[in-house]
Amino acid sequence: MTKFPVPGLTKSQREVFEDIGSGGFGNLASARPKAIKRLLEVGAIVEAGKTLVHQDRFGEVYRTDYAVPIPLHMEWCRWCSDNYDEEGNPK
């Protein structure tokens, strides 16, 4: 069986990685800044721009967007394929 492509992650870090890798909008990321910091340190994710989430007379609020680098994303997809069936159940 294929090993998870980013070894040594905590459960929280892994959940954030999988949220970002599966196209999540960073809901977990904004709630877990320590996980984001660690994933950035090990190169598991990269910053991918900013999104304007609110604007009013007091200014603008942006959210940092993240992405999994494509080679790592491909490894993660391979891992998912080896460990889960088509319905998302563990093999």
Question: What is the overall pLDDT average?
Answer: 88
Q: Percentage of helical residues?
A: 40-55%
Beta-strand percentage range: 15-25%
| Strands, count | 2
Molecular structure report:
With 91 residues, the chain is of the alpha+beta class. The chain has a single domain, classed as Arc Repressor Mutant, subunit A (Orthogonal Bundle), CATH 1.10.10. Helices cover 43% and strands 22% of the residues. It is built from four helices and two strands. A two-stranded antiparallel sheet has the order 1-2. The chain is elongated, with a radius of gyration of 15 Å.
Topology:
Layout lengths: L10 H11 L5 H5 L1 H9 L4 E11 L2 E9 L2 H14 L8
Antiparallel strand pairs: 1-2
Summarize the model shown.
By secondary structure, the chain is of the alpha+beta class. 43% of the residues lie in helices and 22% in strands. Helix 1 packs across helix 3 (33-41).
Task: Please supply descriptive tags for the structure shown above.
4 helices; alpha+beta; single chain; Arc Repressor Mutant, subunit A; two-stranded antiparallel sheet; 91 residues
